[in-house]
Amino acid sequence: MSQHDATTASPPSTTTTTTITGGRSKTSVHITALDGIVNVNSLFTMALFIGFSLTVPAAGGAGNKPSCTASIEIVRQVIVFEVISFSFFLFSSLIAQSLKLAINLVNSLDPNDPHKADMDSFCMKYGLLGSAIGSLLGCTFLMFSIVDFIQVKLGVFSCGGKSAYAIVTMVVFVGTSLLVYILTAVYAFCFM
């Protein structure tokens, strides 16, 4: 072996990576990601049902003048947005559970390595993308319903005060976190 060959040879990699052969990938990270999606969707779904129970027009207003009290149309919007949000969370959770089931079924076929399923990367990529989009849209409509819920409880946004502070704070922080979620999902989609 010449000196040139010895200097150009690269050392073997010691890190564990996802292997892709023939359009199929082996990984156990997907299960953790899918569990996280299902858990977060379940938490938000529980919040939706609490919102259903608290959205009562007679309990709203919090001592506001009549011009600042939310109309019945805003109360209806709360319910509509909560139902749409629930639909997206359910959609996302069902896709995630289906992918998880497929991974676990394939895992059970290999008794030597039960933690790395040989899955079609196309199905995994688009399944995770669909689940992420469902969660994203669910969070967006949940935010819309909370904006209207704040208006029902504290007064309409146009009157300012505590309802305006609460709405602006929520939109800024939730909007920022959704932007981070979108960028992370796009990154994962492009490099998976």
Give your account of this protein's structure.
This protein has one domain (26-191). The chain has 5 helices and 3 strands. The chain has helices spanning 3-8, 29-54, 72-107, 121-154, 162-191; strands at residues 19-21, 24-27, 117-120. Strands 1-2-3 form a 3-stranded antiparallel beta sheet. It is mainly α. The two termini are 38 Å apart. It is elongated, with a radius of gyration of 24 Å. Keywords: Membrane, Transmembrane, Transmembrane helix. The chain crosses the membrane at residues 43-62, 74-96, 128-152, 164-189. Residues 1-22 are annotated as: Disordered.
Radius of gyration: 24 Å
Number of helices: 5
Order of helices and strands: HEEHHEHH
Residue-averaged pLDDT, rounded? 75
DSSP helix fraction: 55-70%
The dominant shape is elongated
Oligomer class = single chain
List the defining traits of the structure above.
192 residues; 69% helix; elongated; mainly alpha
Outline of the structure:
With 192 residues, this protein is mostly helical.
Task: Summarize the topology.
Elements: H1 3-8, E1 19-21, E2 24-27, H2 29-54, H3 72-107, E3 117-120, H4 121-154, H5 162-191
Biased composition (Low complexity): 1-19
Protein name: CASP-like protein
Region (Disordered): 1-22
